[in-house]
Backbone:
């Protein structure tokens, strides 16, 4: 049986349903769902989106990676590529460079 457009759930409803199906004992208030569950889903999505561009930066030598004692991979700017990095940032549209700059400051705390 084919579903009609009115039977389709919106993307947020699907995210909530996905979370509940993978955590069948979970329950929370609307505030808790919005704050924690939604954030977890967005983080998973963002991780998938970040992997490829990060890998490209590593291949280009602009970003260095190392495996920490905890087994996780850590990334940092390659200090030997400062000139190339500056050229890339100068030629980039202003909007994409603003978001990572804010995140970097938050992570430096």
Residues:
């Amino acid at each position: 049986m084919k579903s009609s457009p009115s039977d389709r759930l919106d993307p947020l409803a699907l995210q909530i349903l996905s979370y509940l199906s993978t955590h069948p004992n979970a329950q929370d208030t609307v505030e808790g769902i919005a704050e924690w569950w939604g954030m977890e889903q967005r983080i998973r999505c963002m991780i998938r989106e970040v992997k490829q561009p990060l890998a490209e930066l590593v291949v280009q030598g602009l970003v260095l990676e190392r495996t920490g004692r905890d087994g996780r991979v850590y990334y940092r700017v390659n200090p030997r590529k400062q000139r190339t990095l500056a050229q890339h940032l100068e030629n980039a549209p202003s909007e994409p460079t603003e978001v990572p700059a804010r995140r970097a400051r938050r992570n430096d705390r």
